[in-house]
Amino acid sequence: MTPSFAYFRSLLIAAVLASGLFACASMPPPTSELAAAQQAIAKASDADADMYAAEDLAQAREALSRAQAAMADGRAADARKFALAANADADLARMRSESTQLDAQLAQRRAEIARLQQRLGQEDGR
Fold first, then answer.
1. What distance in Å separates the CA atoms of residue 50 and residue 73, rounded to the nearest whole number?
2. What whole-number distance in Å separates Cα of residue 28 and Cα of residue 50?
3. Rounded alpha-carbon distances, angstroms, from residue 24 to 29, 77, 86, 95
4. CA-to-CA distance for 78 and 65, rounded, in angstroms?
5. Could you tell me which residues come within 8 angstroms of residue 81 by beta carbon, excluding any fewer than 6 positions away?
6. What is the pLDDT of residues 86-113, one digit of tens each?
7. CB-based burial of residue 21 (10 Å sphere; 0-12 exposed, 13-18 middle, 19+ buried)?
8. Domain DUF4398 spans what residues (predicted)?
9. What is the pTM of this model?
10. What is the C-alpha radius of gyration for the chain, rounded to an integer number of angstroms?
11. Alpha-helical runs (H) found in the chain
12. How far apart are CA 90 and CA 42, in angstroms?
């Protein structure tokens, strides 16, 4: 009796599923991703993101919390995904905070220049 196409198809599907399970099982836990996300959140906090990018920082903290919960549940792939999202959100929060602060410094410098030009009797920046 010759094996049918359905038999070979079921063997192929079983092999693909087995290799997928093996790949997931061999993937190390995302401890470095979690640590990187924690560091990124700390850097964002140090850059006053709580004040200038609070929403982005809150998203980063929420994603980190989800990553930690997924890790505790043994869902390494989800933990990795959430940790990477937390890292990206924290970087965005830090960059927005720094950008806002630099914009404020630039506005202050321009105001100083305008005052000096006025004192010198110049108009229109000439």
1. 30
2. 33
3. 10, 8, 22, 34
4. 12
5. 67
6. 999 999 999 999 999 999 999 999 999 9
7. exposed
8. 33-102
9. 0.70
10. 27
11. 5-26, 31-46, 49-52, 54-72, 76-119
12. 8
Name the token pair of 45.
């906090």
Alpha-carbon span 52 to 98, nearest angstrom: 8
**What domains can be seen in the chain, in order of their start residue?**
28-119 (1.20.1270)
Contact (Cβ atoms closer than 8 angstroms) between residue 101 and residue 53? no
Tell me the two tokens of residue 31. Answer: 């401890």
Residue 12: band (very low, low, confident or very high) from pLDDT cuts 50, 70, 90: low
Q: Angle 31-46/54-72 helices, nearest 10 degrees?
A: 160
Q: pLDDT tens digits, residue range 41-52?
A: 999 999 999 999
